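#struct-help
A.M.: can someone run this one for me? Single chain, 95 residues.
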Amino acid sequence: MSVDAATVRRIAHLARIAVKEDEVSHLQGELNAMLAFVEQLSEVNVENVEPMTSVIPMEMKKRKDVVNDGEIPDRILANAPATEDHFFLVPKVVE
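D.P.: on it. Structure tokens below:
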């Protein structure tokens, strides 16, 4: 796949980037080099490779999935315009 000058101008327009006419050929070469690299990556066999979070083996930090009130419910409710029994009061909506 290769990018022509018209495509470079279109990409610049869509990205809202001002590109001068003398820069188009340089950008065309850079975009073509990027696309060639991506095509090269597609040749790599990744059949039996497990997804990784890092290049070195490590385990993700996990926290217990526990429901709590965040230990600051009074500070949170202080921002509300109206509350009742530790709940936010909102206007009734009827359609």
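A.M.: thanks! The mean pLDDT is 90.
D.P.: also worth noting: Helices lie at 5-14, 24-41, 73-77.
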